[in-house]
Write a structure and sequence with these properties.
It is a single chain. By secondary structure, the protein is mainly alpha-helical. The protein has one domain. The protein is built from 4 helices and no strands. The radius of gyration is 19 Å and the shape is rod-shaped. The model has no long low-confidence stretch (mean pLDDT 85). Keywords: Membrane, Transmembrane, Transmembrane helix.
Length: 78
Amino acid sequence: MDESDETATELVDDIETGGLGTAVIASIGSVALALYFYYVRGDKQRGQFVGLWPTTILAVASYFKLEEIKQKLDELSE
């Protein structure tokens, strides 16, 4: 195993595995809320608006996870 493989292994061990879990739960809740507004309450405009939230939630969570990975890589390379 060479040095880059060891660095990758250390990085994988250091990164928290549950980082996106909260965002996924929030996204699923948002989809459920959008369906509720759209079909149950009949407020189609609000249902469509809330239906746009999951992609934003997941994008922000992914950005923060990538920043965490970048910091870990910078720490390991020093």
